[in-house]
Amino acid sequence: MKKLLENRNVTGWLMVSPLAAVLLVFLVMPIVLIIIVSFWRATEFSIIPAFEWDNYAFLFGSPVTYTVFLNTFKYAFITWAFTLAIGFTVAYYLTFHIRSQTWQIALFLLCTIPFWTSNIIRMISWIPFLGRNGIANSTLMSWGVLDEPVEWLLFSDFAVILAFVHLYTLFMVVPIFNTMMRIDKSLIEAARDAGASGVQILWNLIIPLTKPGIMIGTIFVVTLVMGDFITVRFMSGSQSANVGRLISNDIALLQYPSASATAIVLLATVLITIGILLRFVDIRKEL
Amino acid sequence: MEPRPRSFYILSAFFALFVLFLYGPTLTIGILSFQGEGGGLTFPMRGVSLYWFFDLFEQQAVGDIWGSFRRSIALGLMVMVTTVVVSVMGGLAFRKKFAGSGILFYLIITALVIPSILVSLGVGLLFSQSGLNVHWSTSGFGAQLTWTLPFGLLIMFAVFNRFDKSFEEAARDLGASPWQTIRYVVLPIIAPSLIGVALFGFTLSYDEFARTLLTAGSYNTLPLEIYGMTTNVTSPVLYALGTLTTLFSLLIIGAFLALALLSNRRKARAGSDAGKAV
After folding, report:
1. Nearest to B56 by CA among B190, B214, B181, B243
2. CA B100/CA A153 separation, integer angstroms
3. Which chain A residues in 43-82 lie under 8 Å from chain B, judged by CB atoms?
4. DSSP H helical ranges for chain A
5. Residues of A in contact with B29 (CB under 8 A)
6. Cis amide leading into B44 (omega within 30)
7. Residue from the list B8, B154, B209 with its beta carbon closest to the beta carbon of A119
8. Distance from the CA of A217 to the CA of which of A57, A80, A89, B192 falls in 20 to 30 A?
9. Predicted structure pTM score
10. How far is B64 from chain A (nearest CA, A)?
C-alpha cells in the first residue's frame, strides 16, 4: 500500500480524479454523444437512432451554411482586430507609462471588474445608447451631424461587433499585460542607448516579446466570438446569423441531429483554428 | 524622475476613453433605472423615482425573479467551493508529470475553448438520453464546472510556476509528512490566490448564460430569467433588475478584493505561521 502511494502516477491520478471525473462526464461524454446524435434522424416529435450522413449532406449542401460560416469568421476577424489594437494599447500604457505598482494594480483592476459582472446586462445596457431615440442619435442630431436618427446603430452588425469588443477586450488586456510586465526594462534602456527610436523599440523589441500574450488573447477572443450565439441574436435583433445561432435555432425546433452536425463542424473549425494558433505559443510556459 | 513624454498624455486620454467605454453603458442604465413612473427605456428622464425597484418586488407577469436569484446564489456557492477544491488538487497533481497528464491538460484547454453551446447541447442530450431530468443543481452545475475549472486550474498553474520549492524541502528535512507539508506549508502560502479562484468560481457561475440554457431545467437561474425578460418586458424594470444584480456583483467583487488585501497584509505582518503546526 505504501509503495503504491509512492508511485507518482497513482498519487497524481488520485489528486486529479475529481477533475478527470467532471471533464469525462460533462465534456468528453457530451461531445461523444453529440457526434453520435449527429448521425441520427429526426422527426417532428422525436429523434431516432440511425447511422446516416443526411445531416452533414444537408449542412454542406445548403448555401446558407457557407454564408453563415463566412459571417462567423467576419465577426471573429473584425472583433479580433479591434480588441487587439485596444488591448495592446491599454496594456502598453499600464506597463510602461504607469510608474507606481499600486496605480498599476488599481487601474488593472478597474479594467477587469466588468468581466465579473453579467454579460447579458452589459448587452442590455447598450439599448439607451444605440436605440432610435438613444443617446448617440440625439447627440449627433444636436450637433447637427444628422438630420434624422439613423436606424442601424442598434440591431445591426455594427451593434454586434461593438458588443463583442465591449465584452471581450479584457481577454486581450490581461494576457498581454501579463507578458509585458515580464519584459526586462533594462532591454529597453539598452535599445534606447544604442539609438533606437520609440517606434523601433515598439516594433523590434516590445511586440516580439509580447507575442505569446497576444496569441493567448487571440485564442480567447476568437473562440469566444466563434462560439457565441446570444450576442449576435440580441444585438442584431435576430437579423444576422452566425454558426451558434444556426445551432440554437435547430435546438429551438427540437432538431437535435441537425444541431449536433452543425455543432461538430463548428467544433472542428474552432479546434483547427486553435491548433494553428498554438503552433506559435506554448501555453504552459507562459502562465 | 524624467518628465512625462507627450505620448503619456495621449495614451492617458485613450485609457480614460476605454474606461468610459467599459463603464458608460452600465452607468447609463443605472441612472435610467431611477426613471419616473411614466418613463421609458431611453432618455429623457420623466422624473426621478424608485418606482421600478419597487416594481421588482411585485408579482411579475411571468417568471420568478427572486426564486431565480436564490438559485443563482446557491449554484454560485456550490460551483465556487467545488472549483477551489478541485483546482487546488489538480494544481498540486500537475506539479509532477504523471501518465496521461498531457492528455488531461489538453482536455482542460478544450473545455476552455469549446463553444459554450456545445456544452449546453451535449449535457442536455446526455441527461435526456439517459432518462435523467435536467436540473440546475445537477446538469447545470456540471456544465458550469467545465467553464470555471479551467480558469481555476490556470490560476493554480501560474501560482505553482512561481512557487519556491525550497519551503517544502525545508519542511521535509524537518520531518514533516507529505500531508503536513501541504497543510502547514503549501496551503498557507497559496491561500491568497485561492481567493482569486473563489472569485472566478462564483462570478463566472453567477453570470453564466449559455452553458445553463439547456441544462437548468424548469427552474431558471437569474441570467436566464433576465434574458427571458428582454423578450417580453419593455419597461425600465429591466434596468432596475440589471442595476441591482450589477451592484450585487460589485459587492461580491469588493468583498473578495478586501479579503485578498487583508490576507496579504496579514502575511506581510506576521511573516510566517511557523510553530503553529505543533
Report:
1. B243
2. 50
3. none
4. 2-6, 8-23, 29-37, 54-61, 63-92, 101-112, 119-124, 127-130, 135-142, 157-168, 170-180, 185-193, 198-201, 207-227, 230-235, 243-252, 256-278, 283-286
5. 121, 124-125, 127-128
6. yes
7. B209
8. B192
9. 0.88
10. 18
The residue of chain A with its CA nearest to that of B85 is A18
Could you give the 3-state DSSP secondary structure of residue B216? Answer: coil
Residues shown for chain B: 278
- Give the count of beta carbons closer than 10 Å to the beta carbon of residue A111: 21
pLDDT tens-digit series, residues B72-124: 999 999 999 999 999 999 998 888 888 888 899 989 988 988 999 999 999 99
Instruction: Report the half-sphere exposure of B188 (CA within 13 A, side-chain side).
Output: 17
* CB A283 within 8 Å of CB B109: yes
**A247 reaches B (C-beta below 8 A):** yes
Instruction: Report pLDDT digits (tens) over B213-253.
Output: 888 888 888 888 888 887 777 778 888 888 888 898 889 88
Q: How sure is the predictor about B136, in pLDDT bands with cuts at 50, 70 and 90?
A: confident
The nearest CA of chain A is from the CA of B14 a distance in Å of: 8
In this complex, is the C-beta atom of A244 within 8 Å of any C-beta atom belonging to chain B? yes
**Chain B residue numbers touching A219 (CB-CB < 8 A):** 113
What are the backbone angles phi and psi of residue A74, rounded to the nearest 5°? -60, -50
The domain ranges of chain B are 33-62+233-273, 67-215
The fold of the B67-215 domain, in CATH, is: MetI-like fold (1.10.3720)
**ipTM confidence:** 0.86
For residue A31, give the nearest of B11, B118, B161 by CB distance. B118
